[in-house]
Amino acid sequence: MSTQAATAAARRGKLTPERETELYDAVLGLLREGGYDAVTMEGVAARTKCGKATLYRQWGTKPKLVTAALAQRRCVLFSGIDTGSLADDLREAARVAASRRERDAELMEAVAQAYIQHPDLRAALRETVIAPEIAALDGLVARAVERGEIAADNAAIGFVAPCFLGLLRVERLFEERFEDASAMRSFVDAVLLPALYAGK
Amino acid sequence: MSTQAATAAARRGKLTPERETELYDAVLGLLREGGYDAVTMEGVAARTKCGKATLYRQWGTKPKLVTAALAQRRCVLFSGIDTGSLADDLREAARVAASRRERDAELMEAVAQAYIQHPDLRAALRETVIAPEIAALDGLVARAVERGEIAADNAAIGFVAPCFLGLLRVERLFEERFEDASAMRSFVDAVLLPALYAGK
């Protein structure tokens, strides 16, 4: 956006895309550092030298600002996996799950905490953060059905996404079992693939 | 305990087992109603007409009181399942998981929340609430190995407990898929059993 256009936008009260990104980054930073409750309009305003009035005008409420920040991340962990083979796709998903960067882990923890503590946020959190991951995993399996690799009526299909997300949620309860980065890969090879190929 | 013995115990500052149970029940009640943060020594004292000093003397701190209350529950969801057949055992575990009473669900939610928010409590929570469930599921599978139903080196074995607990943690994210009480049973039949029997 040109400086002229940016100035005009600012005068109209609209934020430039760059400024919006700055604000969203501040929100995500606070979220990672201290969880949902640590995010405050004051904190975001201070961190970005933005007026609180601007924040309220643009997003209305803290929940709306936080979910907008999460929605713009566009960083879906399991998206873009399409090797042409179910086994390789699931192994790649396992590799991605095992190599989650520390920052993503903190963010996911904050989202999980917010999900438990703030029932009013659940729909928005599901839509912005959780549903895209589920869709990516479901899509990966659906492509395998289309290619004829697995039977369309195999009941294991619907459990691939729940198992991936479920294991990620509880792995810290099973320290020794999931210590090794290859544990998720082992799960794919020992549990999912035998179940998905059964009857084919 | 006789009245004489109970009075003597009270004079020595010890709580009778009945009184202890009353206090633990009050703790669990508060936990269900409002989560870990809703439990306070004041609240427990008021609910049971017990002196706060007594609570501090007996348990020292709130975390210790809460974990003691959880430990005495002795109500392990997956314990006692031993039909003699792996398939029937896992289907019974699925039935139990699907029929969790509302009170248990509230308690588990409070424990999960406390686990996320209070890292200092995690070891105690694992020991009192989580480890017994894991042990029960692991034991059920180990008996199947002993009976020769499944191969001892089947890598799926170690994932039975993580899958059960993981699915229970994320089922509310997959409303439609887990709406039906038979979903966990379907998971056992479509995913776990094929994987556990593979190569046998």
Total count of helical runs of at least 4 residues of chain A: 11
Give the oligomer, counting copies of the same chain as homo and different chains as hetero: homodimer
Using only CA atoms, what is the Rg of chain A? 20 Å
Provide the domain count of chain A. 2
Q: Please tally the β strands of chain A and state the result.
A: 0
Helix content estimate of chain A: 55-70%
In short:
The first copy, chain A, has 200 residues and is mostly helical. In chain A, 70% of the residues lie in helices and 0% in strands.
What does this structure look like?
The structure is a homodimer of 200-residue chains. Chain A has 200 residues and is mostly helical. Chain A folds into 2 domains: 3-72, Tetracycline Repressor, domain 2 (Orthogonal Bundle), CATH 1.10.357; 86-197, no CATH class. In chain A, 70% of the residues lie in helices and 0% in strands. The first copy, chain A, has helices at 3-12, 17-34, 41-48, 52-59, 62-71, 86-98, 102-117, 122-146, 160-170, 175-179, 183-197. The longest helix of chain A is centred in the last third of the chain and has 25 residues, at 122-146. The first copy, chain A, is elongated and about 60 Å long. At the A-B interface, helix 7, helix 8, helix 9 and helix 11 of A face helix 7, helix 8, helix 9 and helix 11 of B.
